Automatic annotation (TrEMBL):
<feature type="domain" description="Homogentisate 1,2-dioxygenase C-terminal">
    <location>
        <begin position="294"/>
        <end position="448"/>
    </location>
</feature>
<dbReference type="GO" id="GO:0006559">
    <property type="term" value="P:L-phenylalanine catabolic process"/>
</dbReference>
<feature type="binding site">
    <location>
        <position position="349"/>
    </location>
    <ligand>
        <name>Fe cation</name>
    </ligand>
</feature>
<feature type="binding site">
    <location>
        <position position="355"/>
    </location>
    <ligand>
        <name>Fe cation</name>
    </ligand>
</feature>
<comment type="pathway">
    <text>Amino-acid degradation; L-phenylalanine degradation; acetoacetate and fumarate from L-phenylalanine: step 4/6.</text>
</comment>
<dbReference type="GO" id="GO:0004411">
    <property type="term" value="F:homogentisate 1,2-dioxygenase activity"/>
</dbReference>
<dbReference type="Pfam" id="PF20510">
    <property type="entry name" value="HgmA_N"/>
</dbReference>
<keyword id="KW-0479">Metal-binding</keyword>
<dbReference type="InterPro" id="IPR014710">
    <property type="entry name" value="RmlC-like_jellyroll"/>
</dbReference>
<feature type="binding site">
    <location>
        <position position="385"/>
    </location>
    <ligand>
        <name>Fe cation</name>
    </ligand>
</feature>
<feature type="active site" description="Proton acceptor">
    <location>
        <position position="306"/>
    </location>
</feature>
<comment type="similarity">
    <text>Belongs to the homogentisate dioxygenase family.</text>
</comment>
<feature type="domain" description="Homogentisate 1,2-dioxygenase N-terminal">
    <location>
        <begin position="21"/>
        <end position="293"/>
    </location>
</feature>
<keyword id="KW-0560">Oxidoreductase</keyword>
<dbReference type="InterPro" id="IPR046452">
    <property type="entry name" value="HgmA_N"/>
</dbReference>
<feature type="binding site">
    <location>
        <position position="364"/>
    </location>
    <ligand>
        <name>homogentisate</name>
    </ligand>
</feature>
<dbReference type="Pfam" id="PF04209">
    <property type="entry name" value="HgmA_C"/>
</dbReference>
Length: 457
């Protein structure tokens, strides 16, 4: 082990609570778990310090413009290539999809809502606990996204996952994740998110047992901080609150270590006799990172009308069209509502973008019931939606004189995409699908009066 804090068995809670991190977003970081392990002045010396192997991981093409280019260098005990061949993982895992077409998934404009899933009945690790709900495009064509959810109760042991298809953004809803990566370790609790970019190997330990959450995956693009436009130079998610791991390594023998590689949505395994977490030092700007959503600095209405939710964008994975995202990650955090003579909840709307929502804790401001922590909803391109009847009626009943009110103890989020999602079998066949979802709006009555005097009785 690299230090007394290692606790590689994965159960040393204090060590995981007190892990060191490197702060910043998009930085060119350097980190060494042994002083002098990073070569000086070059990336690939003939002999690296401590006899380490140099290995690059590229997250963008070699020739991507400098401002977009992402790559890192690792100095490791053995290079990643030291493994037996990849074979399809058996038994096959049918629940992950990364090509969205007629044979894998269905189209529907219906408003969809899912109840939270129960804990798995059999021991299930993070990999086996993942299932795809919806998505669009193709990992092979490097364009699109997938939305997965997970429910797991078992830690990964001597096994690492590697997603060759895209970047994972994980939103834990229940249970902490202790994640080993090639760049170091991260504790990620509900209320935090973690991004594991394409190609990084990682292993998930579940210190709290039963765990569940949401995962968005983007193909051919990476998450970045949104422009702030007229907001100015500060606000929303601040670069300094993003945390990358500090170098840490495992030099123990691990006969029978398994790498599970997701490639085109299918899973392959390869055996090796060492841990992939054998990187003694690294540098670069292609890194895993986490972010605590409570650090978000929201901007909102201070006089009239409900602003568009884009004002609460934490991260965006852009398409090639300016202002159009393959996937935005947007949150609805605690905040004050102060607008005057305004319908304060989200407006009724239809959107050319598609909106997948999840709830980490609390209640969502547009739904008085039915949208539960751990549940999800999907309102696709141009599908009408908005506050349910109870929320509408309660808002109107409060009247014009509603003073400042605080939305507290809640954290909902949205994955919003310009690409229309197709729904995977789990999403439509699931017993968790709420077939009565549409009922939440059916009670909205007409208050129309041709006299034009009293809009509501
Ligand atoms: O539909 C939703 O609940 C998400 C949403 C929230 C909001 O405040 C404004 C628009 C919007 O789509
Ligand atoms: Fe919406």
């Amino acid at each position: 082990m690299s230090s007394a804090l290692d606790g590689v068995a994965g159960d040393d809670a204090l060590a995981w609570e007190r892990l060191p991190y490197l702060a910043g977003f998009g930085n060119h970081f350097s980190s060494e778990a042994k002083v002098g392990a990073l070569p000086l002045g070059q990336n690939s010396p003939l002999i690296c310090p401590y006899g380490l192997y140099a290995e690059q991981i590229s997250g963008t093409s070699f020739t991507s413009p400098r401002k977009l280019n992402q790559r890192s260098w690792m100095y490791r005990i053995k290079p990643s290539v030291t493994h037996e061949p990849f074979y399809p993982r058996l038994p096959g895992h049918q629940r992950l999809i990364s090509e969205f077409n007629h044979s894998t998934s269905s189209a529907t404009p219906t408003q969809l809502r899912w109840k939270p899933v129960n804990d798995p009945e059999i021991p299930t690790d993070f990999i086996d606990g993942l299932y795809t709900v919806c998505g669009a495009g193709s990992s092979f064509l490097r364009h699109g996204y997938a939305i997965h959810m997970y429910a797991a109760n078992k830690s990964m042991v001597d096994c690492a996952f590697c997603n060759a298809d895209g970047d994972f953004l994980i939103v834990p809803q229940k249970g902490r994740l202790w994640i080993k990566t090639e760049f170091g370790r991260m504790q990620v609790s509900p209320g935090e998110i973690v991004v594991l970019p394409q190609g990084f190997r990682f292993s998930v330990h579940l210190p709290d047992g039963s765990s569940r959450g949401y995962v968005s995956e983007v193909f051919g693009t990476h998450y970045q901080l949104p422009d702030l436009g007229p907001i100015g130079a500060n606000g929303l998610a601040s670069a300094r609150d993003f945390l990358a791991p500090a170098a840490w390594f495992d030099s123990d023998a691990h006969p029978g270590y398994t790498i599970v590689q997701k490639f085109g949505g299918e899973l392959f395994t390869a055996k090796q006799d060492f841990s992939p977490f054998n990187v003694v030092a690294w540098h670069g700007n292609y890194v895993p990172y986490k972010y605590d959503l409570s650090k978000f600095c929201p901007f909102n209405t201070v006089l009239i009308d409900h602003g568009d939710p884009s004002v609460n964008t934490v991260l965006t994975a852009p398409s090639d069209k300016p202002g159009v995202a393959i996937l935005d990650f947007v949150i609805f955090p605690p905040r004050w509502l102060v607008a005057e003579h305004t319908f304060r909840p989200p407006y009724y709307h239809r959107n050319c973008m598609s909106e997948f929502m999840g709830l980490i804790y609390g209640d969502y401001e547009a739904k008085a019931g039915g949208f539960l922590p751990g549940g999800a909803s999907l309102h696709s391109c141009m599908t009408p939606h908005g506050p349910d009847t109870k929320t509408y009626e309660a808002t109107i009943a409060r009247g014009e004189d509603a003073g400042p009110s605080r939305i507290s103890s809640t954290m909902a989020f949205m994955f919003e995409s310009c690409l229309i999602p197709r729904i995977c079998p789990w999403g439509l066949d699931s017993p968790h699908l709420d077939h009565d979802y549409y009922q939440c709006w059916i009670g909205l009555r007409s208050h129309f009066s041709s006299e034009g005097s009293e809009p509501h009785d």
